[in-house]
Amino acid sequence: MVWDQVWIDVNVATMDPSVHGAYGAIPQAAIAVKDGKIAWVGPRSDLPEFDVLATPVYRGKGGWITPGLIDAHTHLVFAGNRANEFEQRLQGASYQDIARAGGGIISTVNACRNADEAELFELGRQRLNALAREGVTTVEIKSGYGLNTATELKLLRVARELGEHHHIDVCTTFLGAHAIPPEYKDDVDGYVDFVINDMLPAVIAEGLADAVDVFCENIAFNLEQTERVLNAAKQSGLQIKLHAEQLSNMGGSALAASLGAKSVDHIEFLDEAGVKAISESGTCATLLPGAFYFLRETQLPPIDLLRQYKVPMVIASDFNPGSSPICSTLLMLNMACTLFRLTPEEALQGVTFNAAKALGLEHRIGSITVGKQADFCLWDINTPAQLAYAYGVNPCQNVVKNGQVVAL
Ligand code: NIG
Ligand code: FE
């Protein structure tokens, strides 16, 4: 066999649902990489012969290899911070009060309109580096802090450039319908028309988005407005997803499901009918424990119903300056278990196989499967549950991206 690289003295959590057993685990395993892809995975004792003198062999000292982690919901290109609002909330104001008073998302919009691409790129690069050190190899980044054409395009261009210059792969999502900009505060339908007729065509013309998202909520866009934007996106051939049922039950998830959305995200207020709808459409449920934690929410997402209806659960950071200023996918694994009572295996599925599905990339990434991209991490742990259990001493030893060993 001629391979580019072989890993031995490792255990592998393949996260491939077709591999029997918890985590799709193969103890005392080996992985071979060729042309940036997984060429072979299985028990070390079955590893075919290869030219040991011509092939780099990496020894994992008995650690675990998992797929590279995927953070499928972030807003990580933004300028400024909202520590002042954090203080206001500690003095009694709610997230909704601050948004209604013209702060919240709009304060970050002002900061982003005033920031240049170089500044946004550098901020984004530092944040991607933080995620990369935790074994993240694919990130979704949304716009939504521009709310005018020039700034939305600027944010998406920066996101695309980050993907080109960093080993992390970036998927981009146009979230022009994130909040109502001050220019349209008395004409929300007019803004929705503008998103559909001006911004979206400009985004598409530059090839800047893989997907379109909307914030469907009583402080943002109603069901009818959401439907108009998602329909326009779908007609343009873009994937769709939705911020749905975060603060109230608006019926956004059922709408998104009827349009074939890849995921509905937050969903603390989702009811059984909504869970049934997303299970029938194959839509993923993206749970965002960082926002739940940081906003001190008390309404838990309907985890038991999601399990009962076999909805793929995704875990993401929602990293953003307002509701989840936490740039750590590993911490989300812990919070998914402590706050939402997921099992460590469900949490890891949520940042690997299911996260790939939410991005429409399950044929390329998300599990250690022959033919998929060689994106994986070596962890200094004895059991995969340790990834969700402890936090603070980063056990990430090595990252391989597209078959290249990355210097962290
Ligand atoms: O996913 N819910 C809407 N958007 C973000 C928050 C954005 C912000 O507060 O800046 C979220 O939580
Ligand atoms: Fe979000």
From TrEMBL:
Its EC number is 3.5.2.7. Residues 64-406 form the Amidohydrolase-related domain. Coiled coil: none annotated. Fe(3+) binds at H73, H75, H243, D318. Keywords: Cytoplasm, Histidine metabolism, Hydrolase, Iron, Metal-binding, Zinc. The keyword Metal-binding applies. Pathway: Amino-acid degradation; L-histidine degradation into L-glutamate; N-formimidoyl-L-glutamate from L-histidine: step 3/3. Binds 1 zinc or iron ion per subunit. It catalyses: 4-imidazolone-5-propanoate + H2O = N-formimidoyl-L-glutamate. InterPro entries: Amidohydro-rel, HutI, Metal-dep_hydrolase_composite, Metal_Hydrolase. It is an enzyme of class 3 (hydrolase). Zn(2+) binds at H73, H75, H243, D318. 4-imidazolone-5-propanoate binds at R82, Y145, H178, Q246, S323. It is found in: Cytoplasm. N-formimidoyl-L-glutamate binds at Y145, N320, G322. SUPFAM superfamilies: Composite domain of metallo-dependent hydrolases, Metallo-dependent hydrolases. It holds the Pfam family Amidohydro_1. Its cofactor is Zn(2+); Fe(3+). PANTHER family: IMIDAZOLONEPROPIONASE, IMIDAZOLONEPROPIONASE-RELATED. Catalyzes the hydrolytic cleavage of the carbon-nitrogen bond in imidazolone-5-propanoate to yield N-formimidoyl-L-glutamate. It is the third step in the universal histidine degradation pathway. Belongs to the metallo-dependent hydrolases superfamily. HutI family. This is Imidazolonepropionase. The gene is hutI.
